[in-house]
Design goal:
By secondary structure, the chain is mostly helical. The chain has 2 helices and 2 strands. It starts with a helix and ends with a helix.
Length: 66
């Protein structure tokens, strides 16, 4: 009886992990597919355009020193 309860609990736990992984993959896939997956997409505070961190950082660095 105890073994059955442990088995059911373990099955429920693995199912919840699988569900969380699937939802995480769905949300990460909804980003712009042209962007590389390593770049973090975010909306710029001033311009409110969707950009990734690396190009934004390089552009601000260029404009700062020119």
């Amino acid at each position: 009886m105890v073994g059955l309860a442990v088995l059911l609990y373990g099955w429920q736990f693995t199912a919840s992990i699988k569900g969380n992984t699937a939802s995480f993959l769905r949300t990460s896939r909804s980003y712009d597919s042209k962007q590389a997956s390593a770049m973090i997409c975010y909306r710029h505070r001033k311009t409110n355009r969707k950009t990734d961190f690396l190009t934004d950082f390089l552009q601000t660095k260029k404009s700062r020193y020119n």
